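Hey, can you fold this one?
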Amino acid sequence: MSTLLKIVLFVYNLLLLIMAAAILGLAMGRPEPLNYINMALATTEGRMISAAAAILVIALTIFVLISLLQKRPKQTSINISSSLNGQVSITIDAIKVIIMKAVKRVEGVKEIRSAVKDSPEGLIITMHMMINPEHSVPEMSKNVQTAIKESLETIGGLTVAEVRVLVDDFAVAPKSTNL
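Sure. Predicted structure:
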């Protein structure tokens, strides 16, 4: 979220808080908020200031609505390097293929889902895995993290900041039946 949007949201919320407090005071039978409103609207200058405040609230509301409804373009590639010769990028789908191949080398992993996020420190990889229950979760997680990081750095030329592993489920090994 941009700094401008954060400031606009702060001012907007502050104005809404003031209006809600005034309405609450009126609902509780307090005459002060109504007296302040009457005093503000008693003079031409007060009405102009009130109109400017109303226009500000309307403008902030429209700005917030437009900002929230805009679709942000989804990141489809990661920049590997830029030089005078040009730019080299790799798609998120290609990164996921590298991750899949790296995880397949680790014994005991049954299913995976991965998410890739770019950060200033490097890629943040989030792995959701289903593993075989006979394997140690900490050991397997460490092996998966190492395999992914090494593969992405050597094959993709990418910097990996973090590999987060979440074991979602344990795969039940099929029982053998003797007839």
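The mean pLDDT is 84. Let me know if you want another pass with a different chain boundary.
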